[in-house]
Structures are given as C-alpha cells and as structure tokens.
Amino acid sequence: MKFTLNWLKEYLDTDASLEKITETLTAIGLEVEDVVDRAASYQGLTIAKIVECEKHPNADRLNLCLVNNGKEQVQVVCGAANVRKGLHIVLAMPGTIIPQSGVALKAGVIRDVASNGMICSESELGLTDTSEGILELPENAPVGQSFADYMGFTDPMIEINLTPNRADCAGVYGIARDLAAAGLGQLKTIGQQPVPGLFDSTTTVTTGDTKACPYFIGRTIKNVKNGPSPRWLQDYLRGIGMKPISALVDITNYLCLGMNRPLHVFDADKLNGDLHVRMSKAGETLHALNDKTYTLDDNIIVVTDKSGPQALGGMIGGISTGCSAETTNVFLECALFDETMIRKAGQKLAIDSDAKYRFERGVDPAFTDEGIEIATRLILDICGGEPSYTVVAGAQPDWYRTIAFDPALTHKRGGIKIDENEQLRLLMALGCQVRPEGDSAIMDVTPPSWRNDIHIPEDLVEEILRLHGYDKIQPVPVARHHTTSRGALSPAHKRSADLRRTAAQRGMHEMVTWSFMSPALAEQFKYPNIDPIPLANAISADLSVMRQTILPNLLQAVQRNTARGMSDIALFEQGNVFFGTNPDEQPANLTLLRSGQAVERHVQGTARNVDTFDVKADIWALLQTCGLNPDNMTLSRDVPSWYHPGQSGALSMGKFTVAVFGMVHPAILQALDIDVPVVAAEIFLDKLPTTKKKSSTKAALTLSPFQSVTRDFAFLIDANVMAGDIVKAVKNTDKTLLQNVTLFDDYRGKGVPDGQKSIAFSIQLQPSDATLTDAQIDVVAKKVVAAVEKLGGALRG
C-alpha cells in the first residue's frame, strides 16, 4: 500500500514529523517497507521549451534543437520522431543523473555538432518501462520549473506492508484513522450530505444473486465534461506512481486508494438498456479496460446490459462502455461484491486490479451510501453535470456483531496490566461501540463496520495491545528446568540431516529444484502404469506435472552446466516425489549424480570418467550412515528404465527396494543433449528400516598375533551371474576364518566361451588362536569352490 505524506495529511491533522509517523505506523502493525524521496531522483531535470528545431546537417535521422530552459537557450541534438518546435519537454543538463540509467549526463559532440543536454522520454525518466519518443508536456507547463515540483514528486511517498486482515487500511483514510487512534493527531471527518437528485436515473439496476452482489447503488449524471483532473488530484496519483488518465477515471482511483471504496463509471450513452448483476454464462467474453479479452465460465460476477457483460463485478470494467474525452453522460456504480467469489475469479482470470485487491479483502459495507455521495460531489465539482436520484438493488448487509469482553483478559492473554478506562478509551478510539453488561465487568463491544477482522475477545486484546504499544510489554525470563528435555529432531529428521551431511562430505553440492516438470520430460521418467499428476494451476506449460523422480531435475542442471563448459559435477537433492494426492503416495527420496570425469588427467596418471562403482561407493557410504550394511542386502538388476540395463543395480531388503544406482541410459542423455557420462543413484527413504541408535563407543581393537593367509581363485561362470552374488556366497562359507574377499578380475573375450566370463578373486584367512595348517586351508578352499559351483561356476585349471 503506497501513499504520500500530503495525502495522509488530507485526512489526519497532525504536526508529527515524517520520522515519527513512520515509527508509529510500524509500531501499530502497519510495517513501513520504504520511504521514497522522489524529488532526489529528478534533481536537475527542468521543464523547457523547444524554440527552434531543424534537421541535423550531418545526419538525416537527427534534429538540432534550440531549447529554452528558463535561464538560457542551449543546443541539443535529438533523434526522437516526435520532436518539434514549440513542444514543452523535460530537459537534462550536463551533470544531471538520468533516473533510468543512474549515469550522469555529459556534454558531447554528435556528428560534429555539439549537444549540451538531453530531451528525456518517459522511460528515461523512469515513469514507464518503454516509451516511443520524448515526453510531451502540456502547453501550460511552466518553463524553468523543476520537473519534480511540476509532477508533485516533492511529497515523500510511504509504502507499508499491509497484512491481509487489515482491509480497513487499504485506503489512506483508514491509515489516518489508525494513526489517530494511536494518538498521533486528529482524524478529519469526510462526511458528505446526500447530493439531491434532479431527475429519475435513465439507467436502473437489478441484482439476480444477492450473495454475489448484496448491495448496489447507482445514479446517472448528465452533461459532464471529462477533461484533465485538477492538479491536486494528479499530484496524489503521480506521487504513488500512478499515471493520471482523465477526471472521471482519476476520481474513481482517488476514492479507491484514498478511502478504500472502489467504484466504476460507465458511459451511459454506450449502455444498451438497464444493468443487471448476475453470474456469468460459460463462453461469454469481455474486452476489458486493460485491453485483454477474458473468456468466462459460469462462476464470475458480471454487470450486464442487454448486450451482455459490461464489467467483471469488483474487478475491472469493459472497454466498450468505458469513459473517454467525448463522454457527456455517465452512470456511477457503487456496489458490494462477495469476497470469496472475487478472490477465486481473480485467480482464475489472472486479474490483479486495485478494485479486486480491496474487494477480496472486504470493503466497509456501511460506507457504500456515503461513498457514492462523495464520488458524486467530486464529479460535479470537477466535471460539472446534473445528478439523478439514486437507484438501489439489494440492501446493506447486516454487519453488526457484539462481543462480550472482559478487560481482565488483556492481562491473561497479553501479560500486561492496562487500566480498564484506558482499554475503554482505546476501543472507542478504534470506532468500537462499548456498553457495560449489567453490574459485571464484562463489556458488550460492537466493532466498527470497517473492521471485518474483529470477531472474538482475543481480537480486541490484540487491538488494545497494538495501540497501547507492544514495546511496553516487559520481557519475562523463561524458567530454567534442571531436567534435560528430549531432542527436537525425530529419528527421520536426524537421519535426513545425517544423509545430507554425508553427501556433502563426499564432495556433492545440494540442490533444491521444482517439484514439477514438463509432461514430455515426465513421460521419459515414468514408472509403469502410473501416470504423472497434472497441476490444475501450473505456473508454465513446462512445469505442469508433478515429478515421480528427482533425477530429471538434476540432469537438467548437468545439461545447463555442461553447455557452459562445466561438465565435472556432483549433485544431490532430498525431497518428495508424487504418485498420488494422499500423503502416503508422496514418499521422500534422496537422489544423487556424478558426471564427467572422476579423476582429472595428471602427470602421474590418466583421466578417468565416472562409472557405476563411483556411485556404488556413494550408496554404500550413505546407507552405512543410516546404520545399514549394504553387503547384507539383495543386489539385483531390477532398475527403472532410465538406467543402463547392464551397468546398474538395485538393493533390496525383503520385498522392498531401498536404492537403485548405475549409469544413466545413453538414450536419456542423448534426449537431454548431455554428451558426458552420468551415473546416478536414488535412495527411497521411506523404505529404509528404522535402526536402533548404536553406542558411540568403539570396541577395543584386538590384533591377531598369527599370520594371515591369502589364496586366489579363478572361475568360469555364466555372464549373467552378478559378481556381488559370488562375493556374498564366498563370504558365507566360513565366517570365523574368512576375513576378506576381494574381486580383482572380470574378463570376457578370447579364451572364454561365449555367454560366460572369467571371475578371479582372493580370500584372506585370519586365524586367532593358532597358525593355520595346509589341511585347514584346504577345507576352506573346498567350501569356496563348492559355493561358487552352486552358482554354476567351474574352477579354472
């Protein structure tokens, strides 16, 4: 919410300084976000007049202008198409800082001709984002006056962060009322006596849905002149960055922003019959004042005539019945619309107007009658004309409510004792009606019509504390207890933190990406028979379905980085994936990947790309962080389709797959335009069992005094048998002596039958009570051979 200091003082009689006003605003809950001295941004810019304008002698598209700035005449080269003799313009002299660029202007020579200034456009002045040509000022713009003074920018602009519950302060008058209640001045009355009608309105109004539009007041005003609005009104609007349009439009903006009372003015001569408020019909359209055409469904409030919708109730008017410079007869609308319907319609149509902002929060229902009278008086004073009697549809809704309030509640809820008379004074200063309830201390409090957020006694306590001053509440130390409280983190949260820490220790960077993606990408990363969940209100077409895996988001990050020459990447992300709308259909995963080279080229060795064993090591480390032993899990090739079928694996515990890892499928990398190898892994956190906390004390190290024995074995075995299954089978042959099994060769090729491979590994036997004999070693060796033979292997001669 933006307003200027002078606008505030139109309603608030105060001698308080700007600093005191901003401090008080924040203290009473209207947090000041910014105070802008706009005059400082336009220092050195003056209004000038082009005295002469001729073609540049050395350039066809440039003009040589002689400009009078009120003190002297200066020569300026200008290339704008609309530059001409007699035009009043904004002139920047050398040394002036241009608002758009923030750079000081320098005198220059353009095509051998000196240029001692610059004629500014609206965009260069920071008034608009883009503009065509220089800014043309009215002929009565005083030459020599500073541009800041002319535009009314000498009035400081204040911006507050307005919370949704404070709809009453969506107008400058409401802010002044709150400051007056806090004791920072006297609120000025804005009461307006009814303007007497002179004839029956040529347009009447009806409402077909009293929930959507409970109350509608209107009147015809004939013979108006819609010229520029007066200077004071233009200054108010310009002071908050709003461009004046015409007197009729500026008056409605003034009422909307100043008094939180949105209105609309129809050109009565463009209406086709009387007005009727109803819900829209599916397929109806409206070409709105913002030059956008909206196609409606059957849930939008519309104001219609015989031709169809002429306005979206509470949001925006239609261009076909809008006012212009030729408008002479108008119909003034002042109505109430349902807050919830306005909010939903605004979101659906992506409309963000000043009227919608206020109606969706709730406007003062009791100010409807007074609002149309104030607007009528302003139109008559500025534009002239003759008003009709008002026409009414519906009735003012019953907003009265009474709250039984005990002043003792302020101390119970707020921790501060405030005298009952002071509480009574503060409530009345807010506009509440307060009546004693018999002989008890209980008060019957009726909040004012503009405070639709006060409903329960605690709301009144909040208001009293707010105005009394939160800074007057004395801090109370929290009592310390000697008992030790339990940790705030649940086991799942603790495990999540441990996993992230381990991933970071292994050199990975954590990512936080969108939970949604494009349908085309989701189709490539879709589990069988589970369609991605579409978003009902997607922020873009490329982010319109929920993810079933985090991996594609990380792959897109790889693609963006490799396109910029950064291919050696290690990333991870922990988050939810989505298979349905229920919480148990949105499990948590941890996904990681590595791309490019695992080892860079070096004088002592060659470079090496990442491979499956790199990411397997990551998975083993992460699962061990959770207190799990991956060596005891079942290893299979049951992996999703986005992994390489021959260079990937899945770890299972019982019937649950807890992790998958491996090379990303080449077809996926090609589709995503990634030309470096990528390995990835996914841990399904919800499938991991909860492990008991282990003791942090390690067992004493016991070293055997007896020498260990190493034996090597080589087998021919079916190529589809996984090395991990072989190693696991060998380890289980003798858990007392067998200390380690190391795979050191996996060969397929010449000398090995098709469909088979040669597997070689070493075993280490470690006795603890005596040196091993050859017989004991042979017993273990026979067990190893037998274990591998059960898997279909044959010992190589």
Structure description:
This protein has 797 residues and is an alpha+beta fold. The chain is built from 20 helices and 42 strands. The chain is 25% helix and 26% strand. A 7-stranded mixed beta sheet has the order 28-31-32-38-37-36-35, with helices on both faces. The protein has a 5-stranded antiparallel beta sheet with strand order 6-5-4-7-10. Strands 13-16-19-20-21 form a 5-stranded mixed beta sheet. Strand 40 and strand 41 (756-765) form a beta hairpin. 35% of the residues are buried. The model has no long low-confidence stretch (mean pLDDT 90).
What's this entry about, in short?
This protein is α+β, with helices and mostly antiparallel strands.
Structural descriptors:
single chain; 797 residues; alpha+beta; 7-stranded mixed β-sheet; 5-stranded antiparallel β-sheet; 20 helices; 25% helix; 26% strand
Write the layout of secondary structure elements.
Layout: E1 2-4, H1 5-11, E2 12-13, H2 18-27, E3 31-36, H3 38-41, E4 45-55, E5 63-68, E6 73-78, E7 88-92, E8 108-110, E9 113-115, E10 118-119, H4 147-151, E11 157-161, H5 172-181, E12 186-187, E13 205-207, E14 215-222, H6 231-239, H7 247-259, E15 264-267, E16 275-279, E17 285-287, E18 293-295, E19 301-305, E20 308-312, E21 316-317, E22 330-336, H8 339-349, H9 354-359, H10 368-383, E23 386-387, E24 391-394, E25 403-405, H11 408-414, H12 420-429, E26 433-436, E27 443-446, H13 457-468, H14 491-505, E28 509-510, E29 516-517, H15 519-524, E30 545-546, H16 551-562, E31 569-576, E32 588-595, E33 597-599, E34 608-609, H17 612-625, E35 634-636, E36 643-653, E37 656-664, H18 666-671, E38 678-684, E39 709-718, H19 723-731, E40 738-747, E41 756-765, H20 774-790, E42 794-795
Parallel strand pairs: 13-16, 28-31
Antiparallel strand pairs: 1-11, 2-12, 3-11, 4-5, 4-7, 5-6, 7-10, 8-9, 14-22, 14-23, 14-24, 15-22, 16-19, 17-18, 19-20, 20-21, 25-27, 26-27, 29-30, 31-32, 32-38, 33-34, 35-36, 36-37, 37-38, 39-41, 39-42, 40-41
Helix pairs in contact: 1-5, 6-7, 7-10, 11-13, 14-17
